Fold:
Amino acid sequence: MISRRYYRLIALWVLAETFLGGLLHAFRIPLAGVFIACFSVLFISLIYSSTGSSKKLIHATLIVLVFKMLLSPHAPLGAFLSVALQGVVGAFLLKVIPSQKAARMLVAVFAYLQSATMKLISLTILFGMGFWDALDEFMISIVDYFPFLATVLSAKNLVLSYLGIYLLAGIVVGWMIGKVTLNADRSLIPFWKESQILDSKKNQKINFEWSLIAVLAAIYFVPGIPDSFQEMCLRAAILLTAWTLFLGPLIKKALFSFLGNRKSGLLREINLIEGILPEMRSNLKISWKAASRQKPYQRIPFFVKTWVQISL
Structure:
């Protein structure tokens, strides 16, 4: 029998991929893959530890991909391929390597290097471009992404530095995740319950999606903001509106009809996780508020730890 914790870990992974990943990409945060890959490795590791089954981990990856399609349809194909690769390779490494700490380290290094080279992988696998042409495009994209560094470093050194950052981050994250367990800190529960009551009342008045659309649309009319950023915000507002009103419900209905016609157990699991997501989103906000009280260098680790512990 699959435990309740299994589905809650999947819900956490879904939110990390769709909500946090979407925000990082929408605002073009430099080295966003460093943060997204961290969450992927964390939840891949915890799901395997919780179930001890590579098949259940691959099944969880499939569910995350379904939700990513439902909640982030604007994501590039490479993002879906990235989740699939990390889930499958993670399941393989965690199964064949006896030491879980070593396995998690290798999963992290793979996830980070794969994230760093995703554009190269996408151009060759998804778009059939020759390797050397794809490599040229990959190098150009990195130079364009860091134009201020391109004046200091050569293209080759800039690419090597970029890959080195991801490799180092993978080693550090792998070492940290190797020490993570599923034991919850019960001392956090009183703070969680009190905050959750306040947060639920607030959520009754504010719908997150429409608030975000309103903010993005308003930015377009604010003077003094660069035209390129205003246009990006307006496009995002239009896409979110179209998705919220039309595309999302249609795709969701079609997908659920497809699964229901085949009497798939996946439909029941999707409905189950969908019911968990509001609580996970509320916990995310609570954890971020709690983390804001920490020292700057402690905030991210504290946020992740708190979010996972109060959600399990």
Remarks:
- Confidence is low (pLDDT under 50) at residues 189-206.
